Amino acid sequence: MLCKLAFRNVRKSISDYTVYFITLMFAVMFFYAFNSLDAQQAIMDLNENKASSAQVMLESIKVFSTFVAVALAILILYANNFLIKRRNKELGIYLMLGMGKGRVADILMMETLLVGVIALVVGLLLGILFSQGMSLITAKMFEVQLKEYVFVFSPKAAIQSIIYFGVMFLCVMIFNAIRISKQKVIKLLHSDAENERVIGKKTWVSILMTVAGIVLILIAYYLIIKGMLIMYLPFVMLFGIPGTFLLFAGLSGFVYKIASRNKKKYYKGLNLFVTRQLTSKINSTHTSMALICLMLFVTIVTLGASSGVSAAVNKEAVRDLRFDAEYFMEPSAAESAGSGVAALEAYGIPVGEFFKETAEYARYDSDVDMLTDFAEYLDIAQANEMSNNMDVKALAGAIPVSQFNSFPRLIGEPEIQIGENEIGAVTYNEMMAESLEQYVNDGHKINSNGKEYALTPDRIRMANTRIMGSAAIAPMIFIYPDADVVNFELKEVTVDGVYVDNAPKEETDQALVNKQAELRRANPDQERPFSNFTSALRSQDSSIGLRVTISFVGIYLGITFLVTAAVILALQQLSAANDNKKRYATLRKLGTEEKMINRSLLKQIAIYFLIPLAVAAVHAVFGIQGLMSMINMMWYENVYQDVFWGLTIIAVIYGIYFAATYFSSKKIIREKQ
Q1: Of 194, 225, 260, which residue constitutes the final position of a domain?
Q2: Among residues 628, 94, 669, which one has the least CA distance to residue 311?
Q3: Tens digit of pLDDT for each residue in 227-264?
Q4: Coiled coil where (predicted)?
Q5: Got the DSSP string for 30-63?
Q6: Are residues 249 and 365 in the same domain?
Q7: How many domains, the chain?
Q8: Residues 122 and 92 in one domain
Q9: Structural domain for 468, as ranges
């Protein structure tokens, strides 16, 4: 009997359960999909470096899954609270007819179980389908070619999803039982007569709060535009967050004042009714709307910035590298052997067997004061980043021209020719190269080594001279006449090489790594002549883990924040529709057409959804700009074009909740009193 009643109640209240069901479905779907990544890893042929990177990504997903599960549990309880509130009168009738509170709790438990099981099954099915697409995305991000399509199913992720959400449903059942046990029949029967207490504000106070909020937000924007996000992040937050709360606190009065001034539009159709309804709701929920706005801001920035950072890491790894491997030699070993290549040969590495050509050059610390000489030509944030995070002496490097020219010969570029009082420069930072070119075009010369050097634009080169740590090395390397570097401190000797052509690069790369490991095992006490070795292939493989981790964690957290914000907005509007049924009934009695009522409801919900999204979007434009400027400084690459794909996810999920809210609200306001 109870099962039949529970099933009938769910079927009858299907519109009420729509948002709740969609939330459960999305939660299960994404939870399964992201936790099934370990099964996707198994179908890919990953080398050692990529497998290690994949493990880092999987561990990160596990850590964040706990946070996501807790957030979703709170969200599900919040949605369930709305459902119980909607049915207070029905539950009161059950109790008045003699049904015990335990039996009522049993009905709610069965309803929760029924909806939960259906949502769990549907969510798992959608998650399995979604994970098939993620397999292709994961393979593409790990740069692995799948030989054939393989259906991916993770029993571990499925069991984990069932356990996590089973515990959530159990918590919901316990919550409902406790709530019913504490309710009084009279309160349940008359719950629809209880109105939300609205704290009114005078119009001038609302306008003042809105203006103050806008001023604080503009100050935060100004700090970001001026490139001060790194330096003044606490101040950006100090102005931006309170500014957002003040903006929403005064928004209802401000909107009403603006709308009511245009009498023609204000009194047209049901605009007066919509304005009153909307401003009243914003006035009573401005705090939660500000929180929703900030969550949407975090969502947009997280999805966008994770894509941008991921793209920057990838572009850093596959930057225009025209050589295959590099050794950072110990200066003493290179000096004693006569050269870095000779030191490698003496150690036991047959350089000619692996490389068809090599380049070798020593790098010294230059005495050029980059911050003093170029301050007015550098971006404020870029100069601050260099001064805070690097040794000022290391901002400029020095290489003797005869040694440096072995590098352009290696990559097939023309050599740099300089005279006695002339200097060259090389950087792979496009912004830095443009600043230096502007510097010399303005008639400046380079002061160094007690001399004044002439630098012309044709001797400024854009070249990537490093595989490893290129974002952390000196942003500018000056090319000196050989005799002029004797007073500088020697920092390192670099040997770059291009692999031989008689074998695939992957095989040569692995053979070289194996050779070095073999020498290490054979002579564990022998000191290596190099401090580090890396190759373009290994650098790219190592970057993949960071790139994939940033992307997946960003999407995972972004979707969680997005669903949270959308659910809260949806439930607030459904609650408003439930509270205002009598007002809509009055409109019908006054002869208002149903079409006009529906249009006013759509307008009200659309504006309510769009206001926090619009403010969040404006915040995100500046937030992403600040983050991208940091990325450009760290990786010297413009990645704005890679940011916007994540907005599609926001549009789809937000649109689904908006549509579900509108159709559910339309059904609620049609209910008879």
Answers
A1: 194
A2: 628
A3: 656 566 777 888 888 888 888 887 766 666 666 666 67
A4: none
A5: HHHHHHTHHHHHHTS---HHHHHHHHHHHHHHHH
A6: no
A7: 3
A8: yes
A9: 331-528
